[in-house]
Design brief:
Length: about 240
Amino acid sequence: MLRKSAYPVVPGVSRRHFLLGGLASTMLAGCNQTLDFPELMVDDYTTGSIRPRISVDQTVTRPEMMYAALDDLGHQVPAVPFDKVDKKYRRQVVVNDTGEAPGTIVVHLQERLLYLTQPGGDAIRYGVGIGKEGFVWQGRAQIQYGKEWPTWTPPAEMIQRKPELVKYAGGQPGGIDNPLGARALYIFKDGQDTLFRVHGSPEWWTIGTQASSGCVRMINQDVIDLYNRVAGKTPIVVV
């Protein structure tokens, strides 16, 4: 369940003018943001809609704030040059036209977009990278659990294709250069691990492309945000 901002509207100022607290207390639980944020102008209505205020917290705003450098559990996550990221793939709030119930993760492979549906008819949308041809998984399943700075263990088939990865046969510890990035969400179907993940990546420039071995990859700042918004087992649809 997402918390609405506790900050009231300042008297004499437009109700769209909010003073947001530190990013750590809202977007990145347990993380210490390295920047001090100025007063921000925030649109509290979904564009083109007459519905009530969007149902997500107001940190989904400026990309320079969302993609700033941060200290996350002792790992230094570098800033993402958001101006080099296609606007389509930056985190944003959109109208939920997925047809899925609130609290569902929806991945559109062709669009290279991931949606987290919200109460009230909105969704938080993130850009993603997807698997290369022949490595893509589709279906309806469940996020069984998630991990922070997870260990990555390449499958035997991958080691056969790339023998240089044999050094990680026992697992590569979590870290900024780990292919799973800052967070991983593990996809299970009918109680069985699909071996596919939604995970972060230090290679932000691959978002919007087909570059992975089948998993859905996200900008590290985005996957931390997504991780903090899902609680427990979460339905996921990949189409």
